[in-house]
Design goal:
Blueprint lengths: L2 E5 L4 H5 L15 H14 L6 E4 L3 H11 L5 E3 L17 H7 L18 E2 L2 E2 L4 H15 L7 E5 L1 H8 L8 E3 L2
Parallel strand pairs: 1-6, 2-3, 2-6
Antiparallel strand pairs: 1-7, 4-5
Amino acid sequence: MAIYFIRHGQSEFNAAFSGDIDPMIFDAPLTKIGLEQAKSARVNILNLGINRVITSPFTRAIQTAKIIFSGISPIEVQHGHHELLLHSCDIGQHPSDLKENFPDLSFEHIPHSWWYKNNISGLKIEEEPLEFFKNRISKFVIALDEIKDKNLAIVGHGNAFKEIIGFGLDNCQIHHFK
């Protein structure tokens, strides 16, 4: 069994954010560049024998997973490895909205507010406490240890992967975790 981490393609938030003012793009979809990055990653995974895919419920991750793995491997949505809430793009959508956008995937098991519960007031977004995030990611890694019979791809996010492996991944970079 092998586990691969794949960071999502470039999102509209990634393209717009310069590091200071949040562009207020909630649950940002992929840009044209992000779509192309995912298409390139599809070529790179063909010989890895991946037969199970887990993606976070953020639109950018789901789009990336579908482009890379459609027709290759089943895709399931899980919420434990979603991004650390720091910006508008890290606030997700209700599962019924996700189901409307991605009708071929199951969201029934996803809680209504699966991202860190925050208060949005004007342009201020309440960040997820780091200890809360670390605990959530730790639980996700423990759950990964239970998967023993599949070559697995996890499509997710920069801060989540950095917490697990100690360094960041570029958009659509594929990392052999174990």
